[in-house]
């Protein structure tokens, strides 16, 4: 299944994972303390709240947050740089994460290299 990272429909992704794992509906209902009808509604939702998504991640042993992380890597605008001026970043109490571990260009390069049948050592050295 190809995931549309630009237009994420988390309910359908959760439903797909439930079908793949074969987890029983009764177990899901007990875990969420809700009815089958409510679970079916969750499958239809394009978005869900963080607490519910975290529960789905635990129950299905799959990190749905990575889908959103990939969206951020591919579709968020590049960070603003003020070249020539030094701006001291304010200290934050929140953890600091690197945004672009792999840029879109790096990902495109890897896919292009694979399509051109380059071997792993060539890709890594380039």
Give an account of the 3D structure.
This is Transposase. With 126 residues, the chain is mainly alpha-helical. The chain has seven helices and no strands. The two termini are 30 Å apart.
Core attributes:
126 residues, mainly alpha, 434 Repressor (Amino-terminal Domain), Transposase
Compact overview of the structure:
Among the domains are: 10-64, 434 Repressor (Amino-terminal Domain) (Orthogonal Bundle); 94-126, no CATH class. Helix content is 55%, strand content 0%. The protein has 7 helices and no strands.
Number of strands: 0
Q: How are helices and strands ordered from N to C?
A: HHHHHHH
CATH-defined architecture of one domain: Orthogonal Bundle
Radius of gyration: 20 Å
Number of helices: 7
Query: On the 0-100 scale, what is the average pLDDT?
Result: 83
Question: Poorly predicted ranges (pLDDT <50, ≥5 residues)?
Answer: none
CATH topology of one domain: 434 Repressor (Amino-terminal Domain)
Structural class: mainly alpha
**Percent in helix:** 40-55%
- Could you state the oligomeric state of the chains shown? single chain
Shape: extended
Distance between the termini: 30 Å
How many strands, what sense, and barrel or not for the largest sheet? none
């Amino acid at each position: 299944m190809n995931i549309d990272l630009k237009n994420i429909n988390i309910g359908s992704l959760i439903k797909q994972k439930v079908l793949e794992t074969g987890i029983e509906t009764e177990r899901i209902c007990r875990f969420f303390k809700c009815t089958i009808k409510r679970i079916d509604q969750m499958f239809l939702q394009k978005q869900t709240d963080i607490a519910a998504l975290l529960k789905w991640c635990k129950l299905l042993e799959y990190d749905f947050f990575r889908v959103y992380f990939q969206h951020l890597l591919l579709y968020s605008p590049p960070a603003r740089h003020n070249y020539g001026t030094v701006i001291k970043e304010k200290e934050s109490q929140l953890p600091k994460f690197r945004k672009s571990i792999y840029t879109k260009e790096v990902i495109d390069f890897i896919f292009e290299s694979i399509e051109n049948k380059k071997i792993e050592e060539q890709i890594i050295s380039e």
